[in-house]
Amino acid sequence: MTDNQTVQAYTDAWTQSIESISELVAPLPADAWNRATECPGWSVRDVVSHVIAFESELLGDPRPIHSLPSDLRHVTDEFTRYMELPVDKRRCHTSPEMTGELEYTIIRRSRALRTARHEPTDLVRWPAGPFTRDIPYHELLRLRVFDVWVHEQDLRRALGEPGNLDSAAALIARDHLVAGLPKVVAKLAGAPAGSTVGFDVTGPVEFLRTVRVDGTGHGTVDDSISLAPDVQFTLGWETYVRLACGRGRPGPVKAEGDEELAARILANFAVTP
User: Fold this and answer.
1) What domain of life (predicted)?
2) What is the spatial distance between Cα 254 and Cα 247, in angstroms, rounded to a whole number?
3) With a threshold of 0.85, does the pTM exceed it?
């Protein structure tokens, strides 16, 4: 695809996923908004608040003036504090207020995306507290697809409404998560030079990937098959997503080979903040 086609593909995937969130929460009774999700410390309301807040900030809306409580255990650093502030601000909002603001935000953001004059490689602001930086426009869109889809899945699991595990956004999320595997294996898990680690993922999104650690300790990932990897993982797609996003205790993971290395990889699997 050309760069402009990639931008359109990201925009379409974002639209499908965020509209799915809107459809999912629109009929919820008031008590369902307080249901816990696997996103640490966040309820259904909080996840929706985060989606609203981030898209609003990209629209140029000012951040709310608000003091956070001091007893939020999942707020551990400046990044989580930055993300938590607009979420906590909305914890008193009613379900009609939440659905109304979400729908309005989607309308505004969709219009902004349709009328945007950015070239794919133009640098734009990525608002993330201490990690705020300028990134290419196409990368911002890709990251928004990933974030919205992951939170869509948080909501679906919490509400018992599975779906969209193989959507266009899911495939974009797959590529984003797979790109983090070399860091997980080589850096965080400390796999020794010369190691190979295979990942056989099954389910709605299937793929085979191998991480190879070279003589300098640098990891790379490809879709070739290693005949005798040091560790071979076999797991379902949803389990892979939950592991890579630090969500709860996922389903079964089959690990063959070096047990100690496998345990280190699983302990460091999360690639999201």
Assistant:
1) Bacteria
2) 18
3) yes
Helices and strands of the chain, counted as H and E runs: 9, 7
Tally Cβ neighbours within 10 Å of residue 55: 22
Whether 126 is covered by a domain: the verdict is yes
Amino acid sitting at position 77: D
State what percent of residues in the chain have pLDDT above 70.
100
In angstroms, rounded to a whole number, what is the distance separating the alpha carbons of residues 88 and 66?
8
Nearest to 19 by CA among 90, 99, 93, 92: 99
Are 26 and 69 part of one and the same domain?
A: yes
CA–CA dist 87, 175 (Å, integer): 28
Which letter does DSSP use for residue 44 in this model? Answer: H
Question: First-to-last CA distance in the chain?
Answer: 30
The answer to whether the beta carbons of residues 87 and 68 sit under 8 Å apart is: no
Question: Cα separation of 30 and 268, whole Å?
Answer: 37
Model pLDDT, residue 248? 77
